[in-house]
Amino acid sequence: MTVNAELHAGGNTWRSLPAAQQPDWPDQEALRDVIAELESYPPLVFAGECDQLRQRLGAVARGEAFLLQGGDCAEAFDAVGADQIRNKLKTLLQMGAVLTYAGSVPVVKVGRIAGQYSKPRSKPTETRDGVTLPTYRGDSVNGFAFTPEARTPDPQRLKRMYQASASTLNLVRAFTTGGYADLRQVHAWNQDFVRSSPSGQRYEQLAREIDRAMNFMNACGVDPEEFKTVEFYASHEALVLDYESALTRVDSRTGQLYDVSGHMVWIGERTRQLDGAHIEFASKIRNPIGVKLGPTTSSEEALTLIERLDPEREAGRLTFITRMGADKIRDRLPELVEKVTASGAQVAWVCDPMHGNTFEAASGHKTRRFDDVLDEVKGFFEVHKGLGTHPGGIHVELTGDDVTECVGGGDEIFVDDLHQRYETACDPRLNRSQSLDLAFLVAEMYRDQ
Ligand SMILES: O=C[C@H](O)[C@H](O)COP(=O)(O)O
Ligand SMILES: C=C(OP(=O)(O)O)C(=O)O
Ligand SMILES: [Mn+2]
């Protein structure tokens, strides 16, 4: 084997280990053909960009920056239109601007975007009116429609995932470097939110301060070109390992392996088994890695994850995304943070206030209360304040559209409203106004910290 082939084989060592939550592909030969084709496709991201994000996350781990990570629970092939992508990006950038000002630190902006097509599920099947079919596992695997045809896993979908990711990333790159995302424009959108929505009016003071800061920079003669572009990264859960390893390549600069399907990938709560395939896969790639930590995580597990994924203790390599639930965070998080900090590891701590707060409304809709989301973030800040550690960021499920999936928020959505625009294929997302609301409230918390 040549050195490169040997290294590349390193991206496949997961194959001998148990891999949770993998699709039950009915046709293995078709799968092999798809993998071979994916292996011939060009990378979606450049390894050097992954390195840059790792450095940015290093600043988060050291307490010098804040991470804003957000986007759909599940992206969908029929939602890769320009409007939807633009609205999502716009929302994230608006949140980023508010957090940057209030925190007076750089905000690292990372979308759950351009690759977030695969879903781990609690149950393998779904039953409706006496009919049982495989559960929906994301557009990369099967269709959402409740028919045997749609729900049968089809490996051709992995190629569509690549194509949808490529076109999304292309538009995101165009928007973020071509002038659309100019900070002055983003600020004008925020002013519009503050002026025109009842929930926005509470943030008039903060928006006015940002306006003064912008005018001040102008008066100082800061080059307006400086505001024109924005650094933005793509991330998704590395779930379907056949796809992720087909897109894992040897970086010609360094000879190291990178998963070039996205800048950052994370391992979910259901697939982070220490002796499982996902952690093995993640240990072989140089991308920045996230790991979700739920309420049952022990400090021993957290420390072993560090040994496996970040043996060199490199700030920025590993991000722990905690998703405890509003009622558990104050109880469960302190020990984890204390033990990890005492071990000398420099992980970034990020709060996912969504996945521990899901419940089913009487109408059958899966939903989350805005107040629970906010309370989990509050608990996260409190714990870090108590320990003198850095609350590194938030990881949220959101969309830029006016959906009705989570209840509460400044422009309140009630349980009875959920049916109006419930569009998610998996978990409930904050809509545009709830997302901005959260950003202003987190900005206030960060400032108080
Ligand atoms: O997004 C996360 C998981 O895929 C999701 O919460 C699982 O939901 P389920 O419990 O409906 O399977
Ligand atoms: C599956 C997800 O979360 P978790 O692994 O935390 O349940 C997700 O982020 O959509
Ligand atoms: Mn989710």
Automatic annotation (TrEMBL):
Residues that, per the record, bind Mn(2+): 73, 355, 397, 427
Task: Name the needed cofactors.
Answer: Mn(2+); Co(2+); Cd(2+)
Q: Which domain of life is it from?
A: Bacteria
Protein name (record): Phospho-2-dehydro-3-deoxyheptonate aldolase
What GO MF annotations does this protein's record show? 3-deoxy-7-phosphoheptulonate synthase activity
- Check the record and name the InterPro entries matching this protein: Aldolase_TIM, DAHP_synth_2
What biological process terms from GO does the record include? Answer: amino acid biosynthetic process; aromatic amino acid family biosynthetic process; chorismate biosynthetic process
Q: Which PANTHER family match?
A: PHOSPHO-2-DEHYDRO-3-DEOXYHEPTONATE ALDOLASE, PHOSPHO-2-DEHYDRO-3-DEOXYHEPTONATE ALDOLASE 1, 2
